[in-house]
Predict the 3D structure of the following.
Amino acid sequence: MENESLNLPNYNIPEDMRDVVAVTTLDRLYNWGRRSSLWPLTFGLACCAIEMIAAQMARYDMARFGMEVMRPTPRQADMILISGTVTKKMLPAIIRLYNQMPEPKYVVAMGACASGGGPFKEGYNVVAGIDKFLPVDVYIPGCPPTPQALIAGLIKLQEKIDKQSLKKARWYQKGKEDPNYVPMPILGPDLIDVRRSEEFKKAAAVKEGA
Amino acid sequence: MATAIETQTVDLAARFPGKVSAESRPGYSGFVVEKESLLEVAKAVRDEFGYDLLAALTGVDYIEQNKMEVVYHLHKTTGGPKLIFRTQADRVDPIEIPSVTPIWAGAEYQEREAYDLLGIRFTGHPDLRRILMWEGFEGHPLRKDWKEAFYEEEIKPYKSRWPEGKHTYAEFKNPFRDNLKFPPNFDPEKYEPEGEKDLYSSLERFSIKSEGGLKTDHVVVNLGPHHPSTHGVLRVAVTLEGETVMGLKPVMGYLHRNHEKIGERNTFLQIMPYTDRLDYFNSMSNNFGYAVTIERLMNIPVAERAEYIRVIMAELSRIQNHLVFIGMLINDLGSMFTPAFYAFEERELILDIFEAVAGSRMMCNYFRFGGVARDVPEEQMQKIKDLVFDRLPFKIDEMERLLNQNEVLVGRLKGIHVLNAEDAVHYSVTGPVLRAAGVPYDLRRADPYSIYDRFDFDVALRHNGDMYDNYLIRFDEMRQSLRILEQALKQIPGGPINSQKPNYQVKVPAGEAYGRVEAPKGELGYYVVSTGKQNPYRYHVRPPSFVNLTALEKMCVGKKIQDFVALLAMLDIVMGELDR
């Protein structure tokens, strides 16, 4: 990783100043601040949400890692935890929440359902994995994942944040649109992903001819 | 073994000659009511025969006989045997059956569900809209000729995967390369979504009108589906005048994950882990209900030791559910987290026991037909004893001491009316909310299942029907659960934990059964129709949260918006079972 050298500068401090001066990089300081106060969105979908609450409680205590400030509004949140089965009916609400979150933002898919449909994948109202719509940073396996697994997943996310660089971060650069902006899906005869409507039209037309 | 026939004690056919006919099917005998005289018969059933509680209402699609059937399961709140009757309509759209909502208000949402999933139009229903799927969704998914996008075969295990174990992704078989299904020649760009006109017009239609005084504009507020105090992804559309709730309509289905459709494809045993995910706080109770139902169909005994283990697990589950209820209720009242910390501390200890015996903290998948999956080892038994005899009674007292006299709590809860006894029964409300209204209806006493008739305990009862009583009755119930646990732990015998040999493919004879247990949130019922194949023909869950929610509008209209949050918490809903 090229950022490794950024994070650990090999700068020689004179002997007599070692007690009063420490040298670090802006990236490292900035990432340390961000990773130590990740604010998740209070967003429970299904069974996994209960384990998310359990992870907040005294026994597992997510606050040890700086993630206890659950925010009910997306405008104050850094991270959205997709904690449960994503249904077609719920999807527009999730997309709306995600689009309202300010950059930088992260998505964690918690559990089998959010990662790929899980046991309910064949269901007619189930979206087989949130990664069909949102860019997922960390997947946490389990049904539901234990609080330990959740915390391990979030530490992975912190490690990911550590490797980001201020200079390259898209959200500080002028004129760069968010490539992850997701247009709102429409609830029609079935879920219409507007990015794929051409494809759907073609497939529906072929179907009748066959 | 064939299914035991449940005889009916009321002879409807003799009372209504020509309108009701007795009928008998494998494993079951009951009545068929002509749909023209359904309302007349239903009224007599309620007023003459005294069946005041409509427990479950559901439709069954008999595609081969070209019939659509609606089944009504009725009970008396004074206990005693049930009454089943059904009514039929030809399977030609529009399928019309009179609505019984005017007679039992608890039918309202269940009829809407049957309309949504089976396409049965209930004439005379006050507000017939889709309930779980959105308006505009194509088709009625629970019909037997409706195939989901990832449809492969009628019955699992699929031939493609078993025994050869070949696997192809379901996406590759679907023309849209996803879990999607569009009508032929569908053009997404020209499509106009139906939106929510129906919801808002119905909200306006059912809003009460203000009397005199100052004229104020009505404001429509949507709480949810993303809202911290709706206990999941429930959405409630509310009309407000100032702070007063003038009208209210819950919108659900945001967690509808097709439990019943998947269940009808699964084999009988494969459904067991899915029931865990209904009410995800109480997987043990859910397993219990399903096991009781299928055992009734198979007519098999349950091993003696397993009966005790089942009761122990179900009651531990009830205690942790009520603890979380209290923690979350006070969370909703604005005291963020401190009481919940106390509740979750005890809950973790109970979950540790579940994890040790079943292998998972929340999704236990512990019950099997005829017994349970694994025995409880001696050291875990000791842990349960320590909890039940020493720790939990002390901790429950401690919570009461901390909370009950709290000025804010008493101020928010006392004197705010939830439901009176008459309305609660009328709306088919069951569980603690019904008992807090003064109706001593507990299935463990009213219709004893398993071995509950052997234990000495009282049905928790409160009489005021206000929120404070609803809150206190949870403590009473935990104490009664502890009483049952103490006796069960003293009496539990040794021996095998399953009366059957372990078997992945159980033989279930043709027939039908409605099994019900007293889950922590109310009556949890399973209605299963078997045709003798390895999967159920119809599998229906009657979740307490869903039916209890019918009364929400009655409870909240006219109250203040801040009380609405607490009133919703009183019903103790869980979205996993509400939407299924």
Q: What stands out?
A: The longest helix of chain B spans residues 304-332. Chain B has 20 helices and 15 strands. The CA atoms of residues 99 and 122 of chain B lie 5 Å apart.
